[in-house]
Amino acid sequence: MKINNWKNNIKDETIDQYDYVGLNNNEDKIIKKYSEIIGSFLIQFNNLEHELNLAISYYFIDDMVHEGYLISKNLMFRNKIELFNDLYLTKLSFSEKKDLGLKKLKHLYNDLISINTFRNYVIHANWLTLDKENYVRTKLVTDNEGGIVKGKKVKITPSVIRININKINTIINQICYIKEYPFS
Question: Which of 38, 42, 63, 98 has the fewest CB atoms within 10 Å, i.e. is most exposed?
Answer without folding.
Answer: 63
